[in-house]
Amino acid sequence: MAMKGVKMTVFKHAFAVMMVAAIAGVVACSDDDNSESGNKYVNNWIYDNMQLYYLWNLDLPKAPAKSQNPSDFFNALLSDQDRFSWIQENYVELLNSLQGVNKEAGYEFKLYLESPDNENVIAQVMYIKSGSLVDTEDKDLKRGDVITHINGQRMTLSNYQNLLGAISENHTITYYRPTEEGPVDMGTLSLNTAEFAENPNFMHKVIETEGHKIGYYVYNFFATGPTAKSSQYNDEMDAIFADFKSAGITDLVVDLRYNSGGAEGATINLASLIGNNIDNSKVFTKRSYNNDLSAALVGEYGADVLLKKFTTESQNVGSLLNNNRVYILSSSRTASASELLINGLKPFMNVFLVGDTTIGKNVGSISLYEPDDPKNKWGMQPIVVKSYNSANESNYSEGFFPDIVNEDNRLSLKPLGDTDEELLSLAIDHITGGSGARRSSAARDGHISLGTSADFKRGSYNLVIDDERVAGAIRSSLVE
């Protein structure tokens, strides 16, 4: 971005990782800019930052109208290739969502059309978050329960988005419980909400069957910890894999069906616990920024700044796994950092997918905001980088297609970790050399999916780059 002849104020930078929340921001204001207020002031900030960081910065309009609402202005800047950049009026809420902190009751769900013959919409509970209000207040709500009404109103194709937009506040649900004997009416349940930090390490166990010891790990988003400098979640992940290694697992199933992304640092940690014949000398992912940003980074730090390597982990189980294979349970919600994990492991081992085709996000973002500017409380999450693995592969913009296809859209759900649960049973069947009969029939009688609760959360479907050098290179190259 050319700024010669413009009197610059001091650049303020902070770089924030998703869920880990390191800070990132750039201010490039002239004296005239400082006298502006309202939309134009914020939009100048948006445009300056997008010129610096945005992956498709050459596609930005040359003279956009800066008087419009910042959200509309930001969206008008986006490239036709961009499905994922977003902006939020309150940067604190943006950062909280990226760390898995949301105001909620504590349940995740999948949306279906009730029947091809009507327009009713249902929401089936996928899992209850440990430590949430639904959990701690001992509400009778379980995985598999089917919600039909929110705040007394029946969900339909015409109103379900508005109704679900209200569940971040206290609300009621009317629901039933599918059973083998038929649906059981559970009546109406009042649910309270509060800001809640979800722990992504949802479940792990060792399943022993037919001479195999199968490590099963449910990981629901990528975060190193609940706060910016915390490593709590990574430490817990390390302990889980230490248990797997001590147990002598022969196979590994990582359940990412509800994992829509998160922080790159947590992704590298998990990859380093799984990959075979890897250490801190091996490349996990390569980054491609816009030309100006790449040049600034390389000029400041050298070519290795575009590489992220595995870490050496004593808890690594890669060498224990049969056929050098890891099983990933996937869904149409599996995205971003989850896909980065899959892509980064592929050059080193057989990554076997069971479930549905993933989202197809091979790009990452940073958080930009100004914590010390009272005139600008906006935060934005623009795409700044495209990711490749060590074999220079990034061909998953349409998602990863599973080896065993199952959309997991039936209303009859077993608990996660139950060996008869749909996707886990398919993985176990393949591990133990089963007949495949389950695979041939598993997708029948499924419902038409309309999306998931992740679609209503700003922090979903993100890969957040956690490297303060990105901001540092821009500062050193532009501040006069």
**Form type:** globular
Distance between the termini: 13 Å
Rounded mean pLDDT is 86
Q: Sketch the major β-sheet.
A: 7 strands, antiparallel
Low-confidence stretches: 1-35, 437-444, 473-480
Q: How much β-strand is present in the residues?
A: 15-25%
How many strands appear in the DSSP assignment? 24
Q: Structural class of the secondary structure composition?
A: alpha+beta
The amount of helix comes to 10-25%
Q: Number of helix segments? A: 13
Rg, nearest Å: 23 Å
What does this structure look like?
It is a single chain. The chain has 480 residues and is of the alpha+beta class. Helices cover 24% and strands 25% of the residues. It is built from 13 helices and 24 strands. It has helices at residues 31-34, 38-53, 70-77, 91-98, 133-136, 160-164, 232-247, 264-274, 291-301, 337-345, 422-431, 437-441, 469-478, and strands spanning 86-88, 101-104, 107-113, 121-128, 146-150, 153-154, 171-177, 184-191, 194-197, 201-209, 212-219, 251-255, 261-263, 283-288, 307-309, 325-330, 350-355, 363-365, 368-369, 379-381, 383-388, 404-405, 448-452, 462-464. The strands form six sheets. Strands 3, 4, 5, 6, 7, 8 and 23 form a seven-stranded antiparallel sheet that branches. A six-stranded mixed sheet has the order 10-11-12-16-17-22, sandwiched between helices. Strands 15-14-21-18 form a four-stranded antiparallel sheet. It is globular. The two termini are 13 Å apart. Mean pLDDT is 86; it is low at 1-35, 437-444 and 473-480.
